[in-house]
């Protein structure tokens, strides 16, 4: 198949989850023998040499809200390439690639990583209703109607009228070749070999809960359990606040953003992977915990036991006592207890082996891409219905 993948606002290469997702998915499709063209914002480093043809097409002025203004350029490229499939990374103000797919008779695929529907009390919903005809809702619902297939971690973030036959619910994944327990290489931190090192790697946003890890380590040290240290990797709006908190806690290191190719060695040098999500800090999560968190899969691929809140969707990825330790996020001290529990080296080793085995079986990017390709091939040969969704334009 020839695939055109539109992810205009994602920087490649980059350090964010979105950047890693786009690069991994595009490269995974290419490794399966497909011709992949990807529309992205080029980063400071050279574009990856992985067989994917990268096309530099950032949104105007670097603002994703203006993505739709690239419709003409996307259509021109689609007419030149004549792809079999056009995949667009969903955004409320996007739709440029879905429009192009309709005009060149390619399969239209919408990759949905964020809610299409609004959560209760959403400011965006209130603004939309002030316009009376709710243009933003109507436009994002048009994108769903126009898509032959929607790929998402959970259908709970889609309009209820979307037919289940048009939805492929699937988790994202990890590159299990790059993320391994035995990865060696220089790491930008020093560790005390007598201590247990918990690592957080990801975006520093309020709902990612990095500051909760800092506070937990602080409480442990204050209570005499000073054998647990923490290393925090990444960047984002919460990083200054987290750094200020870390200055008051021994054993906590914030190292900032790290190129993604160096993250595997950082994880391999740690003992525990922590994903301390705070669902109360992000309104849309009231719909459901809709993330398919890359950090969790990369921890598992690295052979790390995972510490995470006992949220229903995370329970389906990390089983308490099997691949990690889940805690009650409403009780801050339960995170402390989870970390202390994993001071047991034999337990860490057992859970880490299980985590690696589970991600190899279920959560690798290679498996993700095979499942997507299988569904696309079914659509192309007509073994899966492409009947219009309710209200689909004729």
The low-confidence parts are none
What proportion of the residues is helical, as a percent range? 25-40%
Number of strands: 13
Question: Count of DSSP helices?
Answer: 13
**How much of the sequence is in beta strands?**
15-25%
Instruction: Find the CATH superfamily of the largest domain.
Output: Glycogen Phosphorylase B
Query: Biggest sheet, in brief?
Result: 7 strands, parallel
What characteristic shape results from the CA principal axes?
globular
CATH class placement of the largest domain: Alpha Beta
Number of domains: 2
Rg (CA only): 21 Å
Strand order of the largest sheet: 3-2-1-4-5-6-7
3D architecture notes:
The protein has 13 helices and 13 strands. It has about 400 residues and is α/β, with parallel strands linked by helices. The chain folds into 2 domains: about 1-175 and about 365-380, Rossmann fold (3-Layer(aba) Sandwich), CATH 3.40.50.2000; about 195-360, Glycogen Phosphorylase B (Rossmann fold). A 7-stranded parallel beta sheet has the order 3-2-1-4-5-6-7, sandwiched between helices. A 6-stranded parallel beta sheet has the order 10-9-8-11-12-13, with helices on both faces.
Which keywords apply here?
globular; 394 residues; Rossmann fold; 13 helices; 2 domains; six-stranded parallel β-sheet; alpha/beta; seven-stranded parallel β-sheet
Please write out the topology.
Blueprint: E1 2-12, H1 17-31, E2 35-42, E3 53-56, H2 71-81, E4 85-89, H3 96-104, E5 107-111, H4 123-130, H5 135-146, E6 149-152, E7 167-169, E8 196-201, H6 210-222, E9 228-233, H7 239-246, E10 252-256, H8 263-268, E11 272-274, H9 294-301, E12 306-309, H10 312-317, E13 324-327, H11 332-341, H12 345-362, H13 365-381
Parallel strand pairs: 1-2, 1-4, 2-3, 4-5, 5-6, 6-7, 8-9, 8-11, 9-10, 11-12, 12-13
Helix pairs in contact: 1-13, 2-3, 6-7, 6-11, 9-12
